[in-house]
Amino acid sequence: MKTGRKAFNITLFMALLIIMMVGGYFIYNNYSKNSNKVCIENKACFYVEIADSPSERERGLSGKQPLEIDRGMLFIFEKEILSGFWMKDMNFPIDIIWIDKNKKIIGIEESLEPCEEGKECPVFYPKREAMYVLEINSGLSKTYDFGENDSVSF
User: Fold this and answer.
1) pLDDT tens digit string along 108-130?
2) What is the mean predicted confidence (pLDDT) over 21-28?
3) Which candidate, 118, 96, 115, 92, places its Cα nearest to that of 106?
4) CA–CA distance, 140 with 146 (Å, rounded to integer)
5) 84 in Cβ contact with 124 (< 8 Å)
6) CA angle, residues 26, 27, 29, in degrees to nearest 5
């Protein structure tokens, strides 16, 4: 009887260990994907979700819940392009910040409201090609006084 109980305890211990390892992996994976930090000058930093594949860039923040104050989404392109953005299927207003390959801000669109259903949705473009685009909560660009040529680090 003691041998059976010992085997059961070992099996239970191994099962709990595996559950903890798998759970730890998922927690780490989720944390590392969502813990990317983008800072603009010494003015403010944001923890961003990365959109670096065509499907992630297409989906962006569409359909998502409003961001926490220190959160955003960073779009990464393979090369500098004229990347147009619109507010289709958005649930909250945002600021869009275009960043060149040298990690300098080249343009900002502030306080963009979601498109109204049934109306044409405008597309917003930077003045020149950008390699990165940062989306943050509406009004924060003005609050933190972000401007063209500000340096961005991540």
Assistant:
1) 999 999 998 888 999 999 999 99
2) 52
3) 96
4) 8
5) yes
6) 60
Q: Which residues have CB under 8 Å from 125's CB, separation 6+?
A: 82, 83, 84, 85
Q: Alpha-carbon distance 92 to 114, whole Å?
A: 6
Nearest to 150 by CA among 111, 102, 110, 112: 102
How are beta strands 44-51 and 71-81 bridged, if at all? parallel
Average pLDDT score over the chain: 87
Residue with tokens 């960043």: 99
Closest listed residue to residue 106, CA positions, set 125, 83, 130: 130
Assessment of whether the complete model's pTM goes beyond 0.85: no
Question: Amino acid identity of 144?
Answer: Y
